[in-house]
């Protein structure tokens, strides 16, 4: 299933625009594109919302007919327990996370210990925990951790754009994680020369115009056959003013959704 995530609304949620979009506003915009899945991922207000506010947001999603997934950073057992409770409130069947949070950087042994504490509740609840591929941990180490634990509810949130920062090739990341993928973050990426031709900037690109070999990902991971959701997000830099930035963000979202539908 194609979905949108909060990173597809990064600037629209930002306080750098005159009227930041609310979470429910993002839900509505998602449905207006004919998309039925939304991933609330690294959305800071989710951490401080009251039970009443969470219940109201969950009710709004249900009223719109949206399926919800969640995302956070960190794997401390208390954090995962909290997000599992929120997942149950939203009827979410997946929580995406990352090994490191802003406050914790566990060793692989510590990460394994924490995950073994948290996973029995995920298994009992039928909720998947998907750990994202990113530059702070080698893909081989992430896969090894998942293999050692061996839980059917533990897998990968595949984002091959991230691993370039540790000099890994996106195609290699896709191939290594394919058996364990439970969720995909969809965005294109490219290098551009900096002003003066000294160095490069690595950033986002409109889907289909950058370096991401998404056909290879589809053929290798087979998400459509396996029921793995593809969640749209962007690496869009500020475009000079709020109006242009928001317009560009919306256009990139539309283009990405159309691209994914064209290869269905």
From TrEMBL:
Swiss-Prot/TrEMBL keywords: Carbohydrate metabolism
SUPFAM superfamilies: Xylose isomerase-like
Residue ranges constituting the Xylose isomerase-like TIM barrel domain according to the UniProt record: 27-254
InterPro entries for this protein: IolE/XylAMocC-like, Xyl_isomerase-like_sf, Xyl_isomerase-like_TIM-brl
Protein name, per record: TIM barrel protein
UniProt organism field: Microbacterium salsuginis
């Amino acid at each position: 299933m194609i979905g949108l995530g909060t990173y597809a609304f990064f600037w629209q949620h930002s306080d750098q625009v005159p009227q930041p979009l609310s979470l429910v506003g993002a839900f509505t915009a998602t449905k207006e594109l004919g998309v039925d899945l939304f991933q609330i991922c690294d959305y800071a207000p989710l951490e401080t919302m009251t039970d009443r506010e969470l219940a109201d947001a969950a009710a709004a999603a249900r009223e719109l007919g949206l399926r919800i997934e969640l995302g956070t950073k960190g794997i401390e057992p208390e954090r995962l327990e909290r997000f599992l409770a929120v997942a149950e409130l939203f009827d979410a069947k997946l929580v995406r996370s990352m090994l490191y949070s802003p406050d914790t950087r566990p060793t692989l042994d510590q990460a394994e210990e924490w995950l073994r504490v948290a996973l029995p509740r995920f298994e009992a609840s039928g909720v998947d925990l998907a750990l994202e591929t990113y530059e702070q941990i080698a893909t081989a180490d992430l896969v090894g951790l998942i293999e050692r634990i061996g839980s059917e509810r533990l897998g990968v949130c595949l984002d091959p754009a991230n691993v370039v920062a540790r000099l890994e090739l996106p195609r290699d990341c896709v191939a290594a994680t394919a058996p364990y993928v439970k969720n995909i973050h969809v965005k294109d990426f490219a290098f551009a020369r900096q002003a003066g031709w000294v160095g490069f900037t690595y950033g986002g690109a409109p889907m289909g115009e950058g370096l991401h070999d998404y056909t290879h990902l589809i053929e290798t991971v087979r998400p459509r056959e396996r029921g793995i959701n593809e969640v749209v997000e962007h690496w869009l830099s500020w475009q000079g003013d709020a109006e242009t930035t928001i317009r560009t963000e919306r256009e990139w979202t539309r283009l990405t959704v159309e691209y994914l539908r064209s290869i269905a």
